[in-house]
Design goal:
Number of helices: 8
Order of helices and strands: HHHHHHHH
Number of strands: 0
Shape: globular
Length: about 220
């Protein structure tokens, strides 16, 4: 499942290209609207960064599941003699890879436009750690609820309405932790934020493995 999504993306580039461009557009517009000099960067940049990642991730999720809806591919997938949890794991790994690629575009652009010193203190390393801890939860939650909305007519709207409240704990922790990081706090003092994001990721990975079958078969 993961190899299939990755092969399609490597040949077309449609998910990362469209979602990455959307994320960059959010960062650029926000920098023009909200950036008021170095004194405001620690308050504005963290929110812009994670909002761009969140919206771009939902766009990537929508396109990923649209591939399975085309030509009844989802119905063919469900008759395969494999565990439903394996399908969930493959889709989640694909979304995780796409989201990491989007973050690789959004993070440097945010640092450039908001004048964040990535190579001073723990900022660069801290952002990489935050992405590594927060993104699996975002990918797992998105994959699980993307399956739930795959057969609804207003799937994009339903996915956003359902998913964003569930992502709130990890997004709030990521924004608050990134703000402290940009203000000069050492990475070692931000363990509480990392723990919260880690718990969120574990819950949705475990929930996805256990709940994917009834959601996709229902």
């Amino acid at each position: 499942m993961f190899r299939k999504d990755l092969a399609i993306e490597l040949s077309t580039g449609e998910v990362v290209t469209t979602s990455g461009f959307f994320g960059l557009l959010v960062v650029v517009i926000s920098s023009l609207a909200f950036y008021a000099g170095p004194e405001s960067r620690t308050q504005v940049a963290p929110g812009v960064l994670w909002v761009a990642v969140a919206f771009a991730s939902v766009l990537a999720l929508s396109r990923t599941w649209q591939r399975e809806r085309e030509h009844d591919a989802l119905a063919g997938l469900l008759v395969l003699p494999v565990f439903r949890s394996a399908i969930f794991a493959g889709k989640a790994l694909g979304v995780l890879a796409f989201t990491f690629a989007i973050e690789a575009l959004v993070f440097p652009a945010t640092a450039l436009l908001f004048d964040l010193p990535l190579f001073e203190g723990d900022i660069g390393l801290g952002l990489a750690v935050f992405a590594a801890v927060a993104t699996p939860g975002i990918a797992a939650a998105g994959t699980l609820f993307g399956a739930m909305t795959a057969r609804t007519s207003a799937r994009d709207l339903v996915l956003a309405v359902v998913l964003f409240p569930l992502l709130a704990p990890t997004l709030l922790a990521a924004v608050a932790g990134t703000r402290e990081l940009c203000a000069g706090a050492p990475l070692t003092s931000l363990g509480d934020y990392l723990a919260l994001m880690g718990v969120f990721g574990f819950v949705f990975i475990a929930g996805g493995v256990g709940l994917f079958a009834p959601l996709i078969d229902g």
